[in-house]
Design brief:
This protein has two helices and eight strands. The chain is of the alpha+beta class and 116 residues long. The chain has an eight-stranded mixed β-sheet with strand order 2-3-4-1-5-8-7-6. A hairpin with a 5-residue loop joins β7 and β8. The longest helix has 12 residues. The two termini are 17 Å apart. 20% of the residues are buried.
Length: 116
């Protein structure tokens, strides 16, 4: 299994205000905005990204990081076999990702996904 990208997610109360602040402070630009989550990246460099999130529309909790993998089924199987708590079961989302969330030993919520 290989990781395609890993992106920290920062929970914010006001997405527009947070976008403006992060853009001004870091110089990053918005490369995706769904109205509840936005991803920012430096101009011309998609290898560095952060996402700002208000409230995940299909999960009961916000993750703290998203990890995109090339073998989602394998990652899901490993998470279950390892006894990790699955807090958002494997699902296909309308924004064209397939994903699940697990809680690690320290309580962090990890979003593991692949794009469709």
């Amino acid at each position: 299994m290989s990781i395609q990208r890993a992106v920290p997610l920062i929970t914010v109360s006001d997405l527009d205000a947070a976008i403006e602040a992060y853009r001004r402070i870091t110089g990053m630009e918005v490369i995706m905005n769904h109205g509840w989550i936005a991803t920012l990246s430096p101009p011309g460099d998609r290898s560095v990204q952060i996402s700002l999130i208000t409230s995940d529309p299909t999960a009961s909790v916000n993750p703290s990081v998203s990890v995109e993998v090339d073998d989602l089924d394998g990652a899901y199987r490993i998470a279950r076999e390892s006894g990790w708590e699955i807090v958002h079961d494997l699902a296909v989302e309308e924004w064209r990702v397939r994903r699940f969330f697990f809680r690690d030993a320290d309580g962090n919520i990890i979003n593991v996904l692949s794009h469709l």
